[in-house]
Specification:
The protein contains 16 helices and twelve strands. By secondary structure, it is α+β, with helices and mostly antiparallel strands.
């Protein structure tokens, strides 16, 4: 069904038509043309620039950012055992990133610029082709390309999480944590309700949340694709010049049969410009230029016409009165301007170069608008570095201006990131230098102490080797000797902070005529031994018994 209630007579009828569904609100109506425009406050261009520089006057993406930040804070809180849930949240966050980029000022204005280019191309072709263009009403096309702002976007976001209007302004907590009680509906509310016991969440609920997160991702992707592929016509029409049954058997150029009017206009202008520049350069022995191999002869003839319209010609004859005075003129048309295409009505093409394109999966042209995300990547983990810009879809002046703005933004982001990284590197170097200096100071002191100890021990070892006596209170870290005999009249004490081990190749023996005395202790003292081992022996003064520890018990040896 056409958007228009009555047939369109000319471009003005298309551009000024108001026979469409217009959102309610206050509008100004031009009484002469019938053009309807929304009432806006009048600002000078300089005032608008000032407002933009101050970050004021643009409706900010508070809702999108609230969801983005809170889902980014939630992801690290998901236990490792719920890897499937964490992955679904990460994918939903990526989709949310793309939606935030899709609704930023560059991409939103880019779609509007692409729509304006399409409207201008359509208006230029109204009722001209053999099969006329069937345009869609401009307000309806705008709705399709900007549906994210007209309810479709919010409806999808609400499935992720809803908040009270009064809470949106403070949706980002200063503690850096996810706010589980912020959301009044959606998936984030379900997760918030179970935030304190995510591992105990019912399996059915977890599965449902994961499925809904995947659906959210799909819905966002479909919305972005739909808005970028808006169409200004319900039927592009067209004219047939070359016989439809003529089949090219050589190498040819692929062309999308469903081109937008703006894209068709771009190709036609490029062909005419290139032909004018290259027609004088033959590429074969027959003297043919390159366009002989690219275009059917009927279209080549149109290029050879140089795009000049037919000049209207008429013959004026004076009208005389009875006194032979000229009272006026009559005009007789000799040559008139052609108002419609000389081609025939568009016909279905059955050649494989058209019918097989869809099955081949080949993408020939970019959509009217393209969403560019300079900050691709989620909050978790935090990304560093600048953004990248894909310029493949930019061809018109408006698109190039948008691309220039994106490039400037990308360079500014990269510069900011580099500045931050340099500061971080300087801080890390300063910390490392301080640590190194501290280690050098500590090691210097330790080296001095060890040097002194080495000198002392060297002197003691020298005295021992020469048969001399030990210095008083000599200290050794390790002592290895072939024979070791201790003599003297005083008591000799061997003490250890842990176990004292006596080891020999044959046996450890007590020689001489002196007894070997066991440790003496009461039963209470015996029981206070922290780590008794099988083989331990004592003399129990409470029972006056020799005792040994065997198989976990103290037993009498007599």
């Amino acid at each position: 069904m056409s958007d228009f209630l009555e047939p369109i007579k000319d471009a003005s009828d298309y551009l000024n038509s108001t026979k469409v569904d217009i959102p309610t609100g206050k509008f100004d109506v031009d009484p002469e043309t019938g053009t309807v425009t929304a009432q806006t406050q009048s600002y000078s261009l300089k005032e608008i620039i000032c407002s933009l520089l101050a970050g004021n006057g643009i409706k900010l993406p508070n809702l999108q950012i609230c969801l983005k930040v809170n889902i980014g804070r939630l992801i690290p809180e998901i236990p490792g055992a719920l890897a499937d849930l964490q992955e679904a949240l990460q994918e939903a966050e990526k989709a949310l990133d793309e939606f935030i980029a899709h609704t930023n000022i560059d991409n939103a204005l880019g779609r509007l610029n692409a729509a304006v280019a399409e409207f201008a191309a359509i208006a230029n072709m109204i009722n001209f082709c053999g099969t006329p263009v069937v345009p869609r009403a401009i307000p309806n096309v705008i709705k399709d390309s900007m549906g994210s702002f007209l309810g479709a976007g919010k409806s999808i976001l609400d499935t992720l999480g809803t908040m009270a209007d009064s809470d949106i302004g403070g949706c980002i907590g200063t503690d850096g944590n996810f706010k589980p009680d912020l959301f009044t509906g959606g998936l984030l509310k379900q997760l918030g309700d179970n935030f304190n016991n995510l591992l105990g969440m019912p399996a059915a609920l977890r599965t449902s949340i994961i499925n809904d997160l995947n659906a959210f991702k799909t819905d966002i992707e479909n919305l972005i694709e739909f808005e970028n592929n808006f169409k200004g016509t319900s039927n592009t029409g067209g004219s047939i010049f070359a016989p439809n049954n003529r089949v090219n058997t050589g190498v040819g150029m692929a062309i999308d049969p469903n081109l937008t009017l703006a894209k068709s206009q771009q190709y036609a202008s490029s062909l005419q410009s290139l032909y004018n520049s290259l027609k004088g350069y033959p590429v074969d022995a027959a003297g043919n230029d390159i366009f002989y191999y690219l275009l059917e002869p009927e279209i080549l003839a149109k290029l050879q016409n140089n795009g000049d319209p037919t000049v209207p010609l008429s013959e004026r004859e004076p009208v005389y009165d009875h006194c032979n005075r000229i009272t006026g003129y009559t005009e007789r048309t000799i040559q008139a301007v052609v108002q419609v295409s000389t081609g025939g009505e568009a016909q279905s093409t059955v050649q494989p170069g058209i019918t097989g394109l869809a099955e081949s999966g080949i993408i020939l042209t970019s959509p009217p608008a393209t969403t560019t995300n300079l900050g691709a990547g989620g909050t978790t983990p935090a990304a560093s570095g600048g953004g990248t810009v894909d310029l493949s879809a930019y061809s018109t002046t408006a698109q190039m201006q948008a691309a220039d703005s994106l490039i400037v933004t990308a360079f500014e982001l990269a510069d900011t990131t580099a500045t931050t990284d340099r500061a971080s590197i300087r801080s890390e170097f300063a910390t490392a230098d301080s640590t190194l200096q501290s280690n050098i100071t500590n090691n210097t002191s330790a080296i001095s102490t060890n040097t002194s100890d080495i000198a002392t021990n060297t002197a003691a070892i020298t005295a021992l080797q020469s048969g001399g006596s030990l210095p008083a209170n000599a200290t050794f870290t390790n002592l290895t000797t072939t024979n070791f005999t201790v003599t003297g009249t005083g008591s000799i004490v061997l003490a250890s902070g842990n176990d004292l081990s006596l080891t020999a190749a044959d046996r450890v023996q007590v020689t001489g005529t002196t007894p070997f005395k066991l440790a003496t202790m009461t039963t209470a003292e015996r029981n206070g031994i922290s780590l008794p081992e099988s083989g331990d022996m004592i003399y129990n003064t409470s029972t006056n018994k020799f005792q040994g520890y065997a198989n976990g018990l103290w037993v009498d040896l007599n």
